[in-house]
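> Could you send the Rrf2 family transcriptional regulator prediction when you get a chance?

Sure thing. Input:
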Amino acid sequence: MQFSKSTDYALHALAYLANLNPSGPTGIKQLADVLNVSESYLSKIMTNLRKDGLVNAVPGAKGGYELARPASRISFLDVILAMEGRQQLFECSNTTSKQHSMLVQETPASGCRIKRVMDAAESQFFDYLSNQSIQSVISQ
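Output:
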């Protein structure tokens, strides 16, 4: 599993905005220059972050982007979900095999044991990311 470059840029953009707070909104050109990415690509990223309520877009000549809430209340998981979407990381696709049937027969009430392990790992992964905020990385 690998997160997209968009997620990487989104995390860095939010960290940059958090460092500037409360100096006002940051224009897309300045942000793109700092991140060394095209304005059009970054605009798409910032639109996703705005739609998920992580940044505000401030119109006008002195407008730009600012955090929609304190950096301490923006988790890595919030950003990943905004950029990657909300989907389960593991799907048991081998449901018609004899092996899968044996695993489910032994524990029918709880389903496939392999899926249980993968779901538990995903849950721990998401819990960890939900406890890491943008503020936590800029405060280190």
